[in-house]
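Re-run with default settings, no changes from the original entry. Doing this only to confirm the output is reproducible before filing.
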Amino acid sequence: MLKRTIFTILFIALLLSGCSNQPTAEARVLRFGPNYADDSYYLYTKGVDDYHTLSKLYMYSIDEHSERKIFDIGNSDGRILSYRLKDGLISFLVQYKDSYQGYEYNIDTEVLSSFDYDPETPIDDWNDSGTQAYIDTLDYGTVTFCKDVNDNTYWCTIEGVKTPVKAISDKVFSDAGIYSDDLIYIDGCIIGRVTALEGIGHGPQGIPSANDAYNSQIKKDILFSLNLETKESVVLYDTKSNNERIVGYKNNCVYLYSKYKLSMLNLDTNEKTILQSFDDNDRITFSWFGNNLLVFDDIKEEVVFVLKQ
């Protein structure tokens, strides 16, 4: 009886020690890279009393290392629903208690104007998320990717010819999608990241982004390469679990976030270099602007690091 009790205690201790290795931080990658993006502004919201009350819109300039407040709801009962930056204009939608209102802010002139918004218009017109992705290439024009709900196959269309991306077409990606901001083009190849999800429902927009999922709903990240001439695809890196997230890729090195550390792994030598450590940031966001990687702390609501490559 005593031996059985000791064995039971040891077994429970092993289970608890295994649980302690589970990731505690939630990481999002809004824009994969390095990329050819020519903008240098990062948009984000702040709350008044808690994380979910999105009442203030801010812009961070990577070049100037400065923050600018774009909009503040103030004492009004409302929240900022969505926002986007295009051609020097910041467009955003605010939901008040009984109405919706659209706004535009000109970055150069710093002029804010309003426009009427039809609530019947689908909200997904305000973002690029979805199950279709597009990337412009130098020699092959625009390459299109698509992924349907509950389908295990990723498809791409190159110069009008539709073909499967075999390296990442697997049942583990049944609930996963593909997004334009997760793709980059390098020397005749498209490099991309896809995230396998589980336990996450399908909304009106179809497959949700991994950025809308909790860590517990993420299985793993995969980095793949697609040769546009041969149509052949290969897996460059597999995180195997949600303890590690793929952040970027350059010169056959993959940028990784794990255990509150940003690192760079050389795929040729398997040598890993720690680039930056963070103080137990429980919610953190990565976004590439050209060769600049911006890191945003979602709890502190501030930019905490910019990596220039």
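The two ends are 62 Å apart (CA to CA). The mean pLDDT is 82.
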